[in-house]
């Protein structure tokens, strides 16, 4: 195509909101030809057409390649398009840098649009505080958007933040009774606050409201599925497995187009069944392919759960290899989920030749293998945690406890603590009733937390310190120090209702007693067999005394019980009893002695022995005559 014809085609382009996919293809091809061959990537309008068409055609990787040739002076004019492409590609760092670079120069429309993209990005990567701040700004300064949509999104972020940090934040906006989406997200907030009964009531109201709207059958089912899945999940976490499974069983997975919903249903159904055939389940769930397809839709939390399920299934089936857990993949995982050492643990097990059967059926011998590795390496934390896990199966921590105590002592002297090591040691001390050691450990931990600056307190440290404070309050010698720790934590997070209830001795922020009462009828509770509620202790094998392989022979006594000892006068004592036996006059050598004498040549021997030997042999033996 000549330059003039490309220019003419570009001028005739009609870019409107009602164009079809075919129109977008044409816009992209003509604009790209014009941009690259005629304008040599120096035309703003052509760039905009290409990027907009790429977005509508889901060609985000192609658009990203084109952005590399974008002149810097065009960046501020195309900031929404660039930001959206970064968002779809999961290029979070570039998106945040882009916003910070142009924040002061943005007009109101561009700023609102970019705030929407940023709020979704922060939600996706798990930075819920930043996402919540942006949505609250958008609600307060709203001139363009639907207020209801913004409040719905805000409630979704609040529920996620509560789940992450254990807060009980509530939205300042009431749940409208005419929006099932709003009721659904408010139900998630109540669930994050562990208000199960209120959450279920809101979900049931959302179902009723959704069913009352005139929707066709397929649209109605699509709208109801997330609500039904949440109700099923609530039943499952409350041990009401039959109710949970019945909801999932009634859903026809083959009619669902949404890949994410389909995967959740299958996953939750298998989670309530005995895993008899891991190979079949792995093929049916097809985690790896689904992860690839859903990568841009999944939040970090969803991605983490699906990935861990996938790795566990592959480890069970023996299809998890070293190449799948290469250093690059593990580094990317650790950057996204800092502090999570699960992938290193799986790689260590594979390197040591330990499979799923070894972990479940041979914990003692597998533990010995891990001890040998721990003694040979400086990186002891991961193999030690695996060892403690195996010890817990046997309820015997003799293998791992001494090593764990040493490692915790080293960890306590470092800048930051390892919650996994500390938590493991506390659990062992509690299970073995080692109260003195437990109190000393709590005392050391409280001192360390109190001398840590508020700014360096991460979510993990906060949750660990909170658990330590609640455990310590039960010991008289730690009551004062635990209260100091509660006051310190309250300064960091004044929204924590549990800590507030301890410090202020009030229950205003806690759930009412009515919500904590079981929904089961009293008759049903009274009919429960107590033996079913008791933990199943391992059967103690009877001790069988093994027969000794070495059989001891009991000799009879030389003299009988009735043996009469002669009087001393009648006893004849040997006059030569002081002389060695072989030198006595009456000694008769054995065949062995004779042999030794005959075989000895060139050695001086005792004449008495020779004489005796010659005489005795002459008397006993005669010379044999040979045959003539």
TrEMBL record:
Any one GO BP annotation for this protein: SRP-dependent cotranslational protein targeting to membrane
Top-level taxon: Eukaryota
GO cellular component terms, semicolon-separated: endoplasmic reticulum; signal recognition particle, endoplasmic reticulum targeting
Composition bias type Basic residues, residue spans: 619-628
Compartments, as annotated in UniProt: Cytoplasm; Endoplasmic reticulum
One Pfam family per UniProt: SRP72
Location of the Signal recognition particle SRP72 subunit RNA-binding domain: 542-589
Keyword Methyltransferase in annotation: no
Sequence ranges of Low complexity compositional bias: 605-614
Region (Disordered): 589-628
Keyword terms: Cytoplasm, Endoplasmic reticulum, Ribonucleoprotein, Signal recognition particle
UniProt xrefs under InterPro entries: Signal_recog_part_SRP72_RNA-bd, SRP72, TPR-like_helical_dom_sf
Task of the protein: Component of the signal recognition particle (SRP) complex, a ribonucleoprotein complex that mediates the cotranslational targeting of secretory and membrane proteins to the endoplasmic reticulum (ER).
Stated family: Belongs to the SRP72 family.
The protein's name in its UniProt record: Signal recognition particle subunit SRP72
Taxonomic source organism: Candida verbasci
């Amino acid at each position: 195509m000549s330059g003039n014809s490309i220019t003419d085609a570009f001028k005739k382009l009609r870019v409107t909101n009602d164009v079809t996919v075919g129109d977008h293809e044409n816009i992209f091809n003509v604009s790209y030809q014009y941009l690259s061959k005629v304008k040599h990537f120096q035309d703003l309008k052509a760039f905009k057409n290409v990027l907009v068409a790429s977005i509508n055609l889901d060609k985000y990787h192609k658009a990203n390649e084109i952005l590399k040739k974008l002149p810097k002076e065009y960046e501020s004019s195309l900031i929404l398009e660039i930001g959206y492409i970064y968002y779809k590609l999961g290029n979070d760092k570039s998106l945040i840098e882009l916003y910070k670079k142009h924040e002061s120069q943005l007009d109101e429309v561009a700023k609102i649009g970019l705030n929407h993209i940023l709020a979704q990005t922060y939600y996706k990567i798990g930075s819920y505080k930043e996402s919540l701040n942006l949505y609250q700004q958008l609600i307060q300064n709203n001139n363009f958007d639907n207020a209801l949509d913004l409040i719905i999104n805000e409630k979704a972020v609040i529920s996620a933040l509560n789940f992450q940090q254990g807060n009980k934040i509530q939205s300042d906006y009431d749940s409208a009774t005419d929006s099932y989406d709003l009721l659904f997200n408010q139900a998630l907030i109540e669930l994050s606050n562990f208000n199960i009964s209120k959450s279920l009531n809101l979900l049931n109201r959302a179902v009723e409201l959704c069913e009352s709207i005139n929707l066709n059958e397929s649209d109605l089912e699509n709208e109801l599925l997330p609500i039904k899945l949440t109700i099923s999940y609530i039943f499952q976490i409350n041990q009401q497995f039959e109710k949970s499974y019945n909801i999932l069983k009634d859903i026809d997975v083959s009619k669902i187009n949404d890949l994410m919903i389909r995967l959740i249903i299958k996953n939750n159904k298998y989670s309530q069944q005995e895993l008899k055939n891991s190979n079949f389940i792995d093929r049916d769930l097809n985690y790896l392919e689904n992860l690839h397809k859903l990568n841009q839709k999944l939040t970090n939390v969803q991605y983490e759960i699906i990935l861990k399920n996938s790795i566990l299934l592959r480890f069970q089936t023996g299809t998890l290899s070293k190449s799948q857990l290469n250093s690059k993949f593990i580094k990317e995982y650790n950057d996204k989920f800092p502090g999570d050492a699960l992938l290193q643990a799986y790689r260590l097990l594979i390197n040591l030749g330990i499979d799923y059967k070894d972990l479940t059926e041979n914990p003692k011998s597998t533990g010995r293998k891990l001890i040998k590795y721990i003694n040979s390496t400086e990186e002891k934390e991961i193999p030690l945690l695996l060892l403690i896990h195996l010890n817990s199966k046997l309820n015997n921590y003799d293998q791992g406890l001494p090593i764990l105590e040493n490692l915790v002592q080293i960890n306590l002297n470092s800048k930051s603590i390892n919650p996994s090591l500390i938590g493991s040691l506390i659990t062992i001390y509690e299970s073995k009733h080692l109260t003195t050691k437990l109190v000393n450990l709590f005392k050391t931990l409280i001192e360390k937390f109190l001398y840590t600056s508020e700014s360096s307190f991460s979510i993990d440290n906060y949750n660990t310190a909170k658990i330590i404070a609640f455990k310590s309050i039960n010991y008289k010698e730690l009551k004062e120090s635990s209260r100091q720790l509660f006051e310190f934590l309250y300064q960091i997070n004044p929204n924590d209702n549990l800590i507030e209830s301890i410090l202020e001795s009030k229950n205003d922020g806690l759930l009412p007693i009515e919500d904590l009462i079981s929904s089961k009828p009293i008759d049903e509770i009274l009919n429960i067999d107590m033996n079913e509620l008791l933990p199943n202790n391992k059967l103690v094998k009877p001790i069988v005394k093994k027969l000794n392989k070495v059989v001891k022979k009991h000799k009879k006594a030389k003299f009988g019980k009735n043996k009469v000892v002669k009087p001393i006068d009648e006893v004849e004592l040997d006059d030569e009893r002081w002389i060695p036996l072989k030198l006595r006059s009456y000694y008769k050598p054995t065949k062995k002695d004779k042999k030794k004498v005959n075989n000895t040549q060139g050695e001086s021997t005792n004449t008495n022995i020779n004489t005796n030997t010659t005489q005795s042999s002459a008397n006993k033996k005669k010379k044999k005559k040979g045959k003539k």
